[in-house]
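Thread: Newbie trying to understand structure tokens

Hi all, I'm a second-year student working on a class project, and my supervisor (Dr. K.) asked me to get a predicted structure for one chain before our next meeting. I've only ever worked with sequences, so writing a 3D structure as a token string is new to me. If someone could post the tokens and maybe explain what I'm looking at, I'd be very grateful. Here's the chain:
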Amino acid sequence: MDARSKTVDGTTARERAVIALWSELTQAAEKVRGGLARALEAGCGLAPDEVELLMLLAAAEERRLRMVDVSEALRLSKSGVTRLVDRLEDRDLVLRAACPSDRRVVWAGITNEGVAALDTAAPIFVSGLMEQLGERLDDDRVGRLRADLRDIAGCGT
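---
Reply by user tm_fold:
Sure, no problem. This is what the structure looks like when written as tokens:
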């Protein structure tokens, strides 16, 4: 039977392989995120998405971004970004401000406290990713996997 032949359940061998790939991809992402979450919680009390937001804001020009840009960069819905910023704003790590020239635009910016929290969290974040990914994949595999994932996401190279 070749890869195009249908089985009793109506799927081809290629379709089953792609379904298995999806399952393995989500399992791997959940495992990495879970390990990262445990390390961050123990080390600094932040979640991976909170550290990602602080890193994004710290790297931005003027250490702030429009909320819509945060949403796109972190692949979160508008309400998801609002909840994330709310959590960090409650801890004085992020501030939110309306744009004076366009009241429809809301900015999120990192505070000095947020920079200090990131100084603690970033090494834990990087160490966790290296443990979960970097130690399991050599440089060539990391490069190939990144290229494949960018291709899937439609981001090109």
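A couple of things are worth pointing out once you decode it. The first helix runs from residue 13 to 43. The beta strands are 64-66, 94-98, 106-110. Feel free to ask follow-ups in this thread.
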